Amino acid sequence: MEIGRTTVPGTGVLHTFGTRAGARFALLTKRSGDRHLLMYEADRDEPVVDLALAREEADQVADLMRIRSIDDRLAKLEREVRELRAAER
């Protein structure tokens, strides 16, 4: 996947993505914390979809896209901390 990052003055940060299959999309993270998921058609520079997500909504989508959820990763870290503490005793 090709990933690009651009600062949009006065707005936020735009991350652009290009998949192996040729799909193009972007994530605009505004200074307010809101995110916009932008989808592009192959022959257009303007997005054909602008899906506005509140910060919490974006976090939920990100969790679903990960192999393991944040809860699973936190549980793993907690186990590792317990094991380290037990080893110190």
Task: Report on this structure.
The protein has 2 helices and 5 strands, in the order βββββαα. The protein has helices at 55-65, 70-88; strands at 2-8, 12-18, 24-30, 35-40, 49-53. The longest helix has 19 residues, at 70-88. The protein starts with a strand and ends with a helix.
Please, how many helices?
2
Uncertain runs are none
> How many angstroms does the end-to-end distance come to?
46 Å
Lateral arrangement of strands in the main beta sheet: 1-2-3-4-5
Largest sheet: 5 strands, antiparallel
Approximately how much helix is present in the residues?
Answer: 25-40%
- Helix/strand class: alpha+beta
Rg over alpha carbons: 18 Å
| Shape assignment | elongated
Strand elements, count: 5
Short description:
With 89 residues, the protein is an alpha+beta fold. The protein contains 2 helices and 5 strands; from the N terminus they run E-E-E-E-E-H-H.
Topology summary:
Blueprint: E1 2-8, E2 12-18, E3 24-30, E4 35-40, E5 49-53, H1 55-65, H2 70-88
Antiparallel strand pairs: 1-2, 2-3, 3-4, 4-5
Using brief descriptors, characterize the structure shown.
89 residues, alpha+beta, 34% helix, elongated
